[in-house]
Specification:
Layout (H helix, E strand, L loop, with lengths): L1 H39 L1 E7 L9 H17 L3 E6 L13 H4 L1 H8 L4 E2 L10 H10 L19 E2 L10 H9 L5 E6 L2 E9 L1 H5 L12 H14 L4 E7 L9 H8 L5 E4 L10 E3 L2 E4 L7 E8 L9 E6 L8 H22 L6 E5 L14 H17 L9 E6 L10 E4 H7 L14 E7 H14 L8 E4 L1 E5 L9 E6 L2 E2 L5 E7 H5 L1 H7 L39 H12 L10 E3 L5 H35 L1
Parallel strand pairs: 1-2, 2-3, 3-4, 6-7, 7-8, 8-10, 14-21, 18-22
Antiparallel strand pairs: 1-11, 5-6, 9-10, 11-12, 13-15, 14-17, 16-21, 18-19, 19-20
Helix pairs in contact: 2-10, 5-6, 11-16, 12-16
C-alpha cells in the first residue's frame, strides 16, 4: 500500500513537471512574440531643445545621436530626431549665425527630422534669420564637410507662426519648405510631427511687433484633427512654450485640451525632465538646454496607458567619441567667430580678462540672492557712471537684472571674453554688434514699488522674472495678498518718494519685456518708461544709455555683456555671496483687516439686497392695488 502511494506520488510529480515545462515553453514563446512585436511597433524619439548655439557640443552630441540611432534601429525601433526650439543665440558662436548658419547646418549633419522656432531664434532679426537659411545653401555649406554629400536639413514645423511683415523672411520660409506638420513613414508606422511657438515665448520675442501668432491650442486642435484624418500612428508635438509650472503651464494646458497628442517635447524653460510626467495620457518631456543632455524615449504603438516603454536623459559628455563632420563645422566656425569679435570689439573672444576666485551659479540661491546677477547689475551701474564721466546723480540711480537674462555661470579660474559673453549672450544692437545694449530709463517711486512687487508676487511662479537690484532694497509682508505685498522701498538707504523720478539702468531685453509684467499682473504693475524730464518713452532705441546726451562718450551705446566684461577686467573676482534686496517683515494680522473688510462688504451687499427686496415688494403691492 505504501509503495503504491509512493508510485502515484512520483507519477504526479512527473506530470506536474511536464505541465510546468509546457507552460514555461508557451510562456517563453509568448514573451518572445511580445518582445518581437515590441521592437517592430516601437517608436524611439531622440530629442533636444534650447541648444542655443552650443557649437562646442556639436562633435560629441552628433556622435552620441548617431550612436544611439544606430543602436535603436538595429533593435528594430523606428527612430525620429527632433528639437524643441531656440537653436540659436547663447554663445559666442551666435556671432556668425546669419553668415555661417552653423546651428541650422548642425541639425542637418546630426540627422534631425524636424524642429520648431523658439523666441531667441528671432533675436538676430527676421531678415538676418532669412539670410541664415539662404547662406546655409551656398558656397558648399550645404555639403557634409567630410563626405561632401548633400546635407538633409530638418523641416521647420512651426504651425502657429502667422504672417510677418518681413518679405525676405516670408520668402525664406517658402525656400526652406516650412510646414505646419510632416508625416514620416518609419518601419510601416506613420508618425505625425508638428510644432508650436508658445504665447509666453512670443511675448518676449524682440521681433513680435513684426510677427503674428495664431493661438497655440486652437492651431494644435486643427493640426491634430488633420493628422488623425490621415491615419497616423503617433502624434508628436514640439512645443516651445514651457512646462515648468506643471499642469498650469502652457504645455500642461495644451495636453489637457488636446488629449490625442501622444508626446509633447517641451522647450523654452530650459527644464530637464528626468522623469516624464503626464496629463491624461499625454507624455511631456524635456532635455534641458545647451546640448548638455540628449533625451531618448521609446513608446509603443497602440499603447492606451500612455506610459513610455523607456525614457532617459543621456549626458552628452558621456560620449567619448566625436563626429568628424561636426568637428570640422566647429573648427571653421571658430575662426569666423574670432574674426567677428576682432572686427566689432577689437578683441579676441578667448583673451583672458580676469580671474574668478569662486564659481558663480547661473541661478539664484534659496534665499533669493543671486551673486552673479548682482555683479552684472553692478556693472551696468558702473558703466553708466563711467559713460557720464561721473556727471550724474547716483543718489537717485539704481540698476537691475532679471534672472532670465543670466544664461550661464562663471567657473572659478581664468575668465575670458567668451566666458562673459556666455553669461548674457542675447541679441544684437541696432548696428548689428553682439549683445543687447545697456539702456537707461526714468520711472517714479511708485513704479519702483511695482518693480519690487514683481519679485514677491510674480517671480515665485515665474523664476526668470526675479529681479536683482544694485542700490535698492525693500521690505515686504509675504502674508499680504498678491500685488499688495511691498511695504517700503529704499534707494541708497533713503525711502523713495512716490512722485519722484528715479534713474534705472538695465538691459534692452528687460525694457522690452515691461509689457509682459503688465500683462501678467492684469495691468496692476504697469510701468511706463520715461526720459529724465518725465516724458513717456515708447521707443526703446531712444532709451539706450546716453542716447539723448550731446557729445556722449559712446554714441553707439554699450553692449550689456561688454559692460560686464569691462567691469570684471577692472574689478576682478566677484563675491560668491550677496544679500537679497528684499526683507520679509511678515505680519499675519493683516488677515484680520481682510476679514473685517470682507465682513463690511458682506453687510453692504446684504443691505443692498434687502433694500432692493423692499422696493420690489412695494412695487408689487402698488400693482395689486
Amino acid at each position: 500500500m505504501k509503495s503504491k502511494i509512493i508510485k502515484n506520488f512520483a507519477v504526479a510529480l512527473m506530470l506536474a513537471a511536464v505541465l510546468t515545462a509546457a507552460a514555461s515553453s508557451a510562456s517563453y514563446a509568448q514573451n518572445q512574440q511580445v518582445a518581437s512585436t515590441h521592437k517592430v511597433n516601437t517608436l524611439a524619439i531622440l530629442f533636444t531643445g534650447d541648444l542655443h548655439s552650443c557649437a562646442n557640443k556639436y562633435p560629441q552630441l552628433a556622435a552620441l545621436i548617431k550612436s544611439e540611432r544606430a543602436s535603436l534601429e538595429k533593435n528594430g525601433c523606428a527612430v525620429i530626431t527632433v528639437d524643441a526650439g531656440d537653436i540659436a543665440m547663447g554663445s559666442v558662436f551666435s556671432a556668425v549665425t546669419n553668415l555661417e548658419a552653423s546651428e541650422y547646418r548642425a541639425l542637418g549633419l546630426m540627422g534631425y527630422d524636424a524642429y520648431v522656432f523658439g523666441n531667441h531664434d528671432f533675436d538676430i532679426g527676421l531678415k538676418a534669420l532669412a539670410f541664415m537659411f539662404y547662406n546655409a545653401n551656398i558656397q558648399g555649406r550645404n555639403l557634409d564637410p567630410v563626405t561632401k554629400q548633400p546635407i538633409n536639413f530638418p523641416v521647420n514645423v512651426t504651425a502657429n507662426l502667422g504672417q510677418t511683415k518681413d518679405e525676405t523672411f516670408e520668402q525664406a520660409r517658402k525656400y526652406i519648405g516650412q510646414q505646419s506638420y510632416i508625416i514620416l513613414n518609419r518601419n510601416g508606422m506613420k508618425i505625425g510631427i508638428f510644432g508650436l511657438l508658445g504665447k509666453r515665448a512670443f511675448d518676449v520675442s524682440n521681433q513680435k511687433e513684426d510677427m503674428t501668432l495664431v493661438d497655440p491650442v486652437e492651431m494644435a486642435k486643427k493640426v491634430v484633427a488633420a493628422l488623425k484624418s490621415q491615419g497616423v500612428d503617433f502624434i508628436i508635438c514640439l512645443s516651445h512654450s514651457g512646462s515648468l509650472l506643471g499642469e498650469k503651464s502652457e504645455d500642461g494646458i495644451l495636453a489637457k485640451k488636446c488629449p490625442d497628442i501622444d508626446v509633447i517635447i517641451s522647450g523654452h524653460d530650459h527644464q530637464a525632465i528626468f522623469n516624464p510626467w503626464k496629463v491624461g495620457n499625454v507624455i511631456i518631456a524635456a532635455s534641458g538646454s545647451g546640448g548638455d543632455l540628449l533625451g531618448e524615449m521609446q513608446i509603443l504603438k497602440g499603447n492606451k496607458s500612455g506610459n513610455p516603454v523607456s525614457y532617459k536623459l543621456i549626458k552628452t559628455d558621456s560620449c567619448a567619441a566625436t563626429d568628424a563632420s561636426a568637428k570640422n563645422l566647429l573648427d571653421s566656425t571658430d575662426l569666423k567667430v574670432v574674426g567677428k569679435f576682432n572686427q566689432q570689439f577689437n578683441i579676441s573672444p578667448f583673451d583672458v580678462i580676469a580671474k574668478q576666485d569662486k564659481s558663480l551659479r547661473a541661478s539664484p540661491e534659496k534665499d533669493g540672492s543671486f551673486p552673479l546677477a548682482y555683479a552684472v547689475a553692478r556693472s551696468y551701474f558702473y558703466q553708466a557712471v563711467d559713460d557720464y564721466e561721473y556727471n550724474v546723480d547716483t543718489s537717485l540711480m539704481v540698476s537691475c537684472v532679471p534672472a532670465g537674462i543670466v544664461r550661464k555661470g562663471l567657473a572659478a579660474g581664468e575668465v575670458t571674453y567668451s566666458d562673459v559673453f556666455n553669461v548674457i549672450p542675447l541679441g544684437l544692437d541696432r548696428y548689428g554688434k553682439l549683445g543687447y545694449p545697456v539702456i537707461e530709463v526714468w520711472i517714479t517711486g511708485k513704479e519702483l514699488k511695482k518693480l519690487c512687487e514683481l519679485n514677491v508676487s510674480i517671480a515665485p511662479k515665474m523664476p526668470d522674472a526675479l529681479m536683482t537690484f544694485y542700490g535698492l532694497t525693500y521690505t515686504y509682508n509675504s502674508a499680504r495678498l498678491p500685488f499688495t505685498k511691498i511695504i517700503k522701498v529704499y534707494v541708497h538707504g533713503k525711502q523713495v518718494v512716490n512722485d519722484k523720478l528715479y534713474h534705472v539702468i538695465t538691459g534692452y531685453y528687460t525694457a522690452m519685456c515691461l509689457d509682459v509684467l503688465s500683462h501678467n499682473s492684469y495691468g496692476i504693475l504697469k510701468i511706463v518708461p520715461k526720459d529724465s524730464k518725465g516724458n513717456e518713452m515708447y521707443n526703446i532705441d531712444k532709451l539706450i544709455l546716453g542716447h539723448h546726451v550731446v557729445g556722449y562718450k559712446y554714441p553707439q551705446g554699450t553692449n550689456e555683456w561688454f559692460a560686464f566684461a569691462e567691469y570684471l577686467r577692472n574689478y576682478g573676482s566677484q563675491p560668491a555671496a550677496t544679500q537679497f534686496a528684499g526683507k520679509d517683515v511678515r505680519n499675519a494680522s493683516v488677515w484680520l483687516a481682510y476679514a473685517a473688510y470682507l465682513l463690511v462688504l458682506i453687510m453692504i451687499v446684504f443691505f443692498i439686497i434687502k433694500g432692493i427686496s423692499k422696493v420690489v415688494k412695494k412695487s408689487k403691492a402698488k400693482v395689486r392695488n
